[in-house]
Amino acid sequence: MRSDRFVYCFVFYSAFVIPLLNSQSSTQPVDFASSRPTGTIGRIDPVASQEIASHRAKVASSAPWTGMQGSGQIQYGNVQDVYQATVTIFGTTKFRLDAQAPKGNMSIRIDDTYGMLQEADGRTFPLVPETAGTGLFQFELPRVPEFPDKASCACSLIDHGMVTYNGQSFHQITYEFSLNQDYVEGQTPETVTTDLFFDVTTKLLSKSSNLIRIDGAGNHEFQRVISYDDYRPVGDSLVPFQYTQTLNGQKQWTLKLSDVQLNPGVPSNYFAF
């Protein structure tokens, strides 16, 4: 039963079955590797804050970001078949992705640290809190006006300076935050990290990276990297219309949006089953 749960969770979270569990682990070197949690809370590096502000000024509208809903097509792995998909984001903690897949319609829904996957046959499986807490995407984080708000966020923003991959330079920043909403200053928090890689020329977010675990896969970790491409104007905002996810360096899926609506109105139970 344990292996079955891993297969079903892995099918949609990675969205394409590749035997990573038996072939690679996150200890293998991959580009855009994320930083491991340090338990550091309350560190906000000025250079990192300035990079976030420069990015926000380029992509965010005058109206506060509350979310988006986009529809388009998803392609799994290197297979040429395409399927319909819709993604919805509310704030920075609520996500929903509904997509067709070879075996039928599937859905993943996340509300803060709670996440569930629904298979084509209607069965649901949980996401581990550390994985749910990092969301489906991370491009929305730096466009929120109060990000990061040291006064109200048990988090850190750590600058790593410039890094180079394949001849291209990026500014790497680690966002580390506590999963415990009741965190008390002075305690040692349980934290997770998301690394953000900004193109040094365009100031656009190019990649995000974090370590995730999948229920049923034991203590194995997977290095998830999401690429953000094809930025287009939506109103007076810039939004990526193409998203590509890799796990341990292997492409899992590419989502290409054709229509995006900002700040959609959705019912309160939209992100739950």
Keywords:
273 residues, disordered N terminus, globular, mainly beta, outer membrane lipoprotein receptor (LolB), chain A, 44% strand, 13-stranded antiparallel beta sheet, 4 helices, single chain, 13 strands
Secondary structure elements and pairings:
Blueprint: H1 2-13, H2 20-23, H3 46-59, E1 67-76, E2 82-90, E3 94-101, E4 104-111, E5 114-118, E6 124-126, H4 129-132, E7 155-165, E8 168-178, E9 191-199, E10 205-212, E11 222-234, E12 237-247, E13 250-262
Antiparallel strand pairs: 1-2, 1-13, 2-3, 3-4, 4-5, 5-6, 7-8, 8-9, 9-10, 10-11, 11-12, 12-13
Q: Can you walk through the features of this model?
A:
The protein is mainly beta and 273 residues long. The protein has a single domain, classed as outer membrane lipoprotein receptor (LolB), chain A. Helices cover 12% and strands 44% of the residues. It is built from four helices and 13 strands. The chain has helices spanning 2-13, 20-23, 46-59, 129-132, and strands at residues 67-76, 82-90, 94-101, 104-111, 114-118, 124-126, 155-165, 168-178, 191-199, 205-212, 222-234, 237-247, 250-262. The longest helix has 14 residues, at 46-59. Residues 1-12 and 14-27 have low confidence and may be disordered.
